[in-house]
Write a sequence for this structure.
């Protein structure tokens, strides 16, 4: 053995000795995924279920990762509220203007993807469920899409009564219509647009006359509906979120649904900076929901009413460079003056 070898061996032994003397503490195990059920009597209009049954209302299953720094492990009140809103607006008797049927839908920062699953049940032509391109998040979304498809097929097979053909067709086309993809907000969106170049054609009884027409060769098809569920607390990402939305939504007719709560009321003006920026970039914003859902994080401080309220907004993009509108007074008394004073400098 050479002297160099001796030095090398001695160094290695020294390192090993240090490791033994100061062992690295054991890292806590990653929490297992959690399973949640979303139930609504309105689901009985759309998924296989005996309408005469006295059993529980139909449900969708949502798995969430055990933990995630991007908050993909939380089933947000805003997502539940938006799912309820989609079901209510698509219920029998509503106008086609509010229907999901035949539409192309994309969800940003989906987490468990509950609103996307509801859109799939409501006969969207294509639903693209996106989140940060991390394997754990995307694999979890694929599980949710696959598991709910499996459960729908099982319910169709086990149904005790005749199933409406529309419902049966919704179940049969589930895998074709539901897609999971990664997306970084503000980055190139061409891959997401490519997904909707070939959307299943729905029979006229199921189609929504307000969904996008097929694209022309010079104008790629874009999305009819975008979903942003409890994302605007990411204050540094407001511009990136809007850039993605503007690249993906059909101008003027497409609708982006932005649902949120002020989990940290001391920063609620920063939350609302999203809408101020959207207005400057040509978005028209109107409120569609304000409801009390309860506080999500008991350990947080601040006004409980703000923390427990879900706000829902429908946004349409009129075109970059045009001034949009947002009735800020709809949000709270005197908000316009407060925002002009606090945010007008930026």
């Amino acid at each position: 053995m050479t002297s160099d070898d001796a030095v090398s061996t001695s160094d290695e032994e020294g390192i090993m000795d240090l490791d033994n003397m100061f062992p690295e503490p054991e890292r806590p195990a990653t929490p297992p995924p959690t399973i949640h059920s979303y139930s609504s009597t309105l689901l009985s209009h759309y998924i296989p279920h005996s309408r005469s049954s006295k059993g529980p209302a139909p449900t969708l299953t949502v798995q969430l990762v055990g933990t995630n720094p991007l908050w993909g492990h939380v089933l947000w009140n805003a997502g539940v509220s938006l799912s309820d809103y989609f079901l209510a607006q698509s219920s029998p008797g509503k106008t086609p203007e509010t229907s999901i049927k035949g539409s192309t839908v994309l969800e940003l920062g989906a987490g468990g993807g509950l609103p996307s699953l509801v859109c799939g049940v409501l006969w969207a032509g294509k639903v693209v469920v996106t989140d940060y391109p991390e394997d754990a998040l995307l694999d979890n979304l694929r599980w949710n899409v696959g598991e709910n498809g499996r459960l729908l097929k099982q319910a169709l097979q086990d149904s005790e009564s005749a199933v409406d053909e529309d419902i049966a067709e919704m179940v049969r086309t589930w895998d074709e219509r539901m897609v999971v993809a990664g997306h970084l907000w503000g980055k190139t969106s061409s891959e997401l647009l490519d997904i909707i170049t070939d959307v299943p054609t729905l029979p006229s009884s199921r189609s929504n006359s307000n969904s996008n027409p097929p694209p022309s060769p010079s104008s790629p098809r874009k999305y009819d509906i975008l979903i942003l569920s409890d994302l605007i607390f990411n204050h540094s990402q407001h511009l990136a979120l809007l850039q993605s939305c503007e690249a993906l939504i059909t101008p003027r007719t497409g609708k982006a649904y932005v649902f949120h709560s002020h989990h940290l009321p001391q920063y609620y003006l920063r939350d609302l900076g999203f809408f101020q920026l959207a207005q400057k970039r040509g978005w028209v914003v109107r409120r569609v929901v304000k409801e009390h859902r309860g506080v999500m994080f008991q350990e947080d401080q601040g006004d409980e009413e703000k923390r427990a309220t879900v706000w829902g907004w429908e946004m349409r993009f009129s075109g970059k460079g045009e001034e949009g509108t947002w009735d800020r007074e709809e949000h709270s008394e005197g908000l316009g003056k407060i925002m002009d004073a606090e945010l007008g400098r930026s």
Q: What stands out?
A: The radius of gyration is 24 Å. Confidence is low (pLDDT under 50) at residues 1-16.
